Amino acid sequence: MRVDKIALIVALPIAMSLTAVAGLSVAEDPAGPKAPLQPSEEAASPQDPGQALSPPAGDPASAEAAEATGEGAPVPGAEQAAEGKAEAAGSPEEAQQQEPEKEPEPVTGAFGIPLGERFAPCMVSEVLGEEERTYRAADKSERKGTRYRVEPKVPNALFASYAVETTAEGIVYSIRAEFEAEDKASRCDVTKRLAASLVDKYGKPRGKGSFGEWYAFRDMSVDHYRGIRLYANRCRRGIYSIQYNDDAARTAAPPPAPQPTETSGL
Question: What is the rounded CA–CA span in Å between residue 114 and residue 105?
Fold first, then answer.
């Protein structure tokens, strides 16, 4: 009995001390004890699925984490769309090919000599000679005219001789230039370059020989024939020529015949 009393005396102060400590903890937290967390609060919010996996900003693992979660990955189809835009834009060469063709220039003459105008010696550097000749007009009628051998003011190094043909009234209807190599060697490469320069200036030829032996260019800005013919059928022997013709000048109506006039007196 005595032993029990001693045990009670020892246990009573210990129990009182524990009660005081528990009371002090409750007093320090005015909100009272917290309820245990529910399982739904412990999990990450479903609206932010990558929150738990994303490392802090600046972390070396950021790139790896972004790749793992799909952040920063290319949008599907974006690369193909970019390629499509690049194809639509085209390369500079394709852009040049899509540009409208150059407007052909009209055929007005050559070597500084105009077609359709009255010939005058001042149009050329020198008149080397002249001769009367007969030509056919567009209506097949024969007419008289003159051929002048000339040295033009604007010669071309690819030609050696030049001629101007006029009607009886002196209107220029044809301008010619010729070349004949003394060595009789082929000059077909020269005629091809000439044809290319004519295409660049007057547009595509209206006609062309099967092997490039002739080229025909026509000025479509007028309602009659006015054009150029490059003859290269003898280029293998070093001979070729070019002609600028205007049918309107060739077929100009001859002046009317003089009519008798009335006179007074005897």
Answer: 14
- For the question of whether the overall pTM of this predicted structure is more than 0.70, the answer is no
Query: Which of helix, strand or coil describes residue 191?
Result: helix
* Calpha distance 177→164 (Å, rounded): 9
Residue ranges in the chain modelled with pLDDT below 50: 1, 3, 18-83, 85-86, 88, 265
Question: Which two three-digit tokens encode residue 242?
Answer: 């070019």
Measured CA to CA, the distance from residue 76 to residue 59 in angstroms comes to: 27
Query: What are the Cα distances from residue 150, in Å, to 113, 114, 123, 227?
Result: 10, 14, 10, 21
190 contacts 235 by C-beta, under 8 angstroms: yes
pLDDT score, position 252: 63
**Minimal CA–CA distance to 214: which of 233, 234, 189, 193?**
233
Distance of CA 120 to CAs 114, 127, 155, 194, 213, Å? Answer: 11, 10, 17, 28, 34
d(CA 187, CA 235): 5
Which tokens hold the place of 244? 């600028």
Contact 230, 240 (CB under 8 A): yes
pLDDT tens-digit profile of 51-74?
333 344 444 444 444 444 444 444
